Amino acid sequence: MNPTIAMITFRAMLGRRRALLLLALPLVLLVLAAVLRYTGNDDLDISADVLQKFGLATLLPLLALIAGTGVIGPEIDDGQIMYVLTKPIPRQVVVLTKLAVAIVLVTAFAVVPTLLAGLILTGTTAQMTPAFTVGVLVGGVTYSAVFVALAVASRNAVTIGLLYALVWESLLGNFAPGAKSASIQQWALSVTDALTSASPVKSSVDLPVAIPLLVAVALAGTFLAVHRLRSLAVASAD
């Protein structure tokens, strides 16, 4: 990891308009949790529904998409990445640094708000709050790796990411069992399901399948990003 690249990336991410989205989305979750708690609509079923459908299925992929594509995509689009690539810094260090920044942002703006929302809603009842916190964390790491790879591989990374997160996982996942099983959301939910005794939390993917898939996709995304970044340098040099 390169501290200079990390610092520049953090400054760029938190200084853009995207930072407003990073703040707005978790704020909606926290306000919703507070309203439900205040009005007494915070039973286990409703709380699980909020944490799963809003926290895990909506907040997490959108924030990971903003962070994962934002840490490197704009630099590739405007050519600034070439300044970094001319330095004697291994390509894998550049990718791992960008990925680390994306994961930190997802942790700050998705994992922590999920933890706080869960504590507001149910406390530690049935260990549901820590379970969703861990699920969002592992899902966030995998989402971040995928979206960083997309940002390096395509100028349409945001569109492709939205199609995957909102169409494949959310829309098709409700009708096609195969789509649901090939879903980072369901793999993360499987981890959550294993850590809580709350009956409303159910995943369609077994934990022994979900964990290897989470690891494999995260590693594949990282490898693809490194490979494509090396190709980008060669192509630009030509």
TrEMBL record:
Keywords: Membrane, Transmembrane, Transmembrane helix. The chain crosses the membrane at residues 53-72, 93-120, 132-153, 160-179, 207-226. This is ABC transporter permease. It comes from Actinomadura graeca.
